[in-house]
Amino acid sequence: MSLYVVAKGGEAAANKGAGNNAATSLLAVLGNRPPAKIVVNEMTTIASVWTHAQFLSGTAIKGHALGLRIAAGNVPHFVDLQTGGWGTTIQDALNGGQTPTMANFATLADVMAGCATQVAADACNKFFAAATPPTGAAPSDTLTAAQSIARYPWYKPERLFALVAEFYPMPAGKNLRPVPFMPYLAHAPSAWVLPLKFDGGGYRAGGKAMFDSEGNLWVGDNFSTGWQGTDALWQGNATKFDPNAKPLSPITTGFTGGGMEGGTFGTAIDAKDNVWFTTYGSKAIVVFDKHGKPLTPPEGITFGGRLGLMQGIIVTPSGDVWALGVEKNQLVHFPKGELSAGRIVCEGDKEEPCKSFDAPFHLAIDQQDRIWVSNSGLPHVTRFPASDPTKAENFKTGMNNSGLNIDSQGNVWIANRFGTGLLAMAHLVDMGIRSKTEGFLAAMDYLTKTMSEQKGGAHGGSVTLLRPDGSSFPGAPFKGGGIPAPWAVAVDGNDNVWVSNFNSASSPIVQLCGMRTENCPPGFKTGEQISPPGGYVGGGLQMLTDVAVDPAGNVWAMNNWQDIGSCMGSPNEALSTRCGGQGVVIFFGMAKPVRAPQIGPAQRL
Question: How far apart are CA 175 and CA 187, in angstroms?
Fold first, then answer.
């Protein structure tokens, strides 16, 4: 078996010279230092196919160089290429016995091995039938079968699971099936996903996440490691992970200085890879260079202490930076990203567009240079031209808006945390009353507790879809069992939409069919849930804020809170450091890759 790699015009490609069953396991040689020996088995095949799912076409692997490097670098998380056994990450303390990923992985390997070793005369035919995708005929080889499962993990997962018992019957008087790989699943999964959790670099209760031009992830943290963090005080710093989730910031504190104190859902990266954050603790705007060196003063940019609690921030294609103050209804502008030229455009309710705001949360810019702002205190989004913010317009949405994003056609997707209907309106009114009588932070406590108890469907959250002209798309807002409490929306390179949830101790992420339905599985309509009814789960997911797609098509989810009882009042001493969410969770190869950093709407790679 051989593998060769070519690179030209910024594109790298790898092709299998010979062999079939486990050829893609050799993709790890795309790294700079391949191991002297590579063991080819079902484990290495699965690891390579899942991490390279967006770059495989038959037996060819091709794509942009950054994406291929990221994909190859993720293979060792799952498997030791020199032994063919388990990799370090999948069996570590954060994963191992904490999530179903090892069992999902081993079960897939067992079923594939049943075909490879012909445990029954018709084993391969049964394996291929169980791996048949919703798009066409059954595969005729194991490589194609693996690709089918990786790309459609939600499609009839019980078929493959049933083969474990069929291929490996329980011997009389025994307790374990004679499978080649353990642990195997006892129950059918909702999807054949292989998420892993990563931590470190000072990560604690991450908010908004962004990728820089090298594929590194940056996130602002609500809290710091070891703190008895509560919603009354956010004092976290900044965390940086490399493209394969290795922490690059200090282990306990993260990157500090420049006024960084209490990161929020406000992170943006400019064309120079400078990272912009907004904060709660210091009520400031903070900038770091790509190495984590602060570029702002020790107190950050506060405009003489005028800023309140801050949230969304973006960089536009023209280089401008815009930010929102959620507490004081503020809009801040830095022309061309010049720190010395920043100004508060408006605040309060006297002038537009701030007059149209109510607790503005996040913002995005469309292809017509118009900025869209979500409002957490009113059931509408506000739109204004970047050239003239006074020309504000409002468009109806669901209740309590948070994250929003814009697809390649200019359509706007907005997370409605309370959803729609009378109950949602009652929650919004109640939150507003608490804000006026008890203060903004009391209202935020009410928000998070309410969201944590919501259920998917009629009484859960929703996702609004507006056309570029602001009109509502028929059938929107969209609801579903996997959207109990949506927080953020991300658009991938296929214009499909990914939604995070701030809900239970193991909140799901959800994939929705986007406007370009030709990129959805057959029969799906815009807004319909592609992922299982309860969303994609596992991997150590907690209560989530952001969800982000990287240049290799991996979907990263930010764990923000874990024990809600530890986040308010006087928590149990033994659990008093468990408010903040632990680590990021990565679902590998599941989305069409996008360019980084994302400046403006997502762009396909």
Answer: 16
Cα(513)–Cα(510) distance, rounded to whole angstroms? 10
Task: Give me 392's structure tokens.
Answer: 């504000």
End-to-end CA distance of the chain: 30
468: CB partners within 8 A, 6+ apart: 366, 368, 409, 410, 411, 412
> Tokens standing for 54?
């967006």
Q: Mean of the per-residue pLDDT values for the chain?
A: 92
**What is the rounded distance in angstroms from the CA atom of residue 391 to the CA atom of residue 411?**
20
Asked if residue 566 lies in contact with residue 558, where contact means CB atoms within 8 angstroms, the answer is no
Instruction: Compute how many other C-beta atoms are within 10 angstroms of the C-beta atom of residue 308.
Output: 16
pLDDT one-digit tens code per residue, 503-549: 988 899 999 999 999 999 999 999 999 999 999 999 999 999 999 99
Binned at pLDDT 50, 70 and 90, residue 36 comes out as low
What DSSP string runs through 341-385?
G-EEEE-TTSSTTGGG-SSEEEEEE-TTSEEEEEESSSSEEEEEE
C-alpha 60/C-alpha 463 separation (Å) is 37
User: CA dist 113 to 42, 48, 118, 161, Å?
Assistant: 6, 16, 8, 13
Task: For the chain, give the number of residues.
Answer: 605
- Residues in Cβ contact with 518 at an 8 Å cutoff, skipping those fewer than 6 apart: none
